[in-house]
Write a structure and sequence with these properties.
Elements lengths: L2 H7 L2 H26 L3 H4 L1 H20 L9 H26 L1 H24 L9 H21 L2 H31 L10 H26 L1
């Protein structure tokens, strides 16, 4: 399919959320791969690595927002990234699964889906570019969150940990508004001409989803303890 026929053959907004669903599926495939091949001993040390992974995801989010990552690349890179991310998250997700129990863990995953869907729906219903003005505020907030997370590595205070996680949920919920609004603006301005142009948007929305999920898991786990 060439660039000129892409828009007429497929709705870019629908395609983005379909690719996002596939990306999340690849994450869970990576999780299952990790379950088969990652040593079980890492599960018991997962609480040590959770902050490291979160810092890595925040840095990656910051790179994508500051255009360090190209704005157009193969969707296969997104799938590869989410697959590897699923492997890296295996010990952490398994730790929370044991700590919280299957029922509560599933409810948190579903809650993440609901939060994502609500904010995506709100943004989609607004005019294109409605939330783009939040960009600079969100970027600054992301850098603040990264700094707070790094500080929390050394202090590891339960109350501060909950505050950082709550801030992360608020921030990435707002980023859903911004990312969907930006995508809608790009579509209506003709800047989405092929599948690869959607890749950065899919990646950003995936990072929004995963960061909210991990922050929710951390909050519930801390409150439980």
């Amino acid at each position: 399919m060439n660039k000129s026929t892409y828009i007429t053959a497929e709705n870019p907004m629908s395609a983005t959320f379909r690719y996002l669903a596939i990306s999340i599926m690849f994450m869970f495939v990576g999780f299952l791969f990790g379950k088969l091949f990652v040593p079980a001993s890492l599960v018991y040390a997962a609480n040590i690595f959770v902050v490291i992974l979160i810092v890595g995801l925040l840095i990656f989010s910051l790179m994508s927002r500051k255009n360090v990552i190209p704005t157009s690349f193969s969707m296969n890179f997104v799938y590869l990234f989410t697959f590897v991310d699923g492997i890296l998250m295996y010990p952490i997700l398994t730790y929370y699964l044991y700590d919280l129990g299957t029922s509560l863990f599933i409810n948190i995953v579903l809650s993440t889906c609901v939060i994502f869907a609500v904010f995506a729906f709100i943004s989609h219903k607004k005019p294109a570019g409605y939330f783009i003005g939040l960009g600079n505020i969100l970027l600054t907030s992301l850098m603040v969150l990264l700094a707070m997370t790094i500080v929390n590595i050394f202090f590891n205070a339960p109350v501060f940990n909950i505050l950082v996680s709550a801030f992360g949920i608020i921030l990435f919920s707002a980023y859903i508004l911004y990312d969907v609004s930006t995508l809608k603006h790009y579509i209506e301005s003709g800047r989405i001409t092929c599948k690869n142009d959607l890749s950065i948007h899919v990646l950003n929305l995936y990072l929004d989803f995963v960061n909210i999920l991990l922050d929710l898991l951390r909050i519930v786990s801390d409150l439980k303890d």
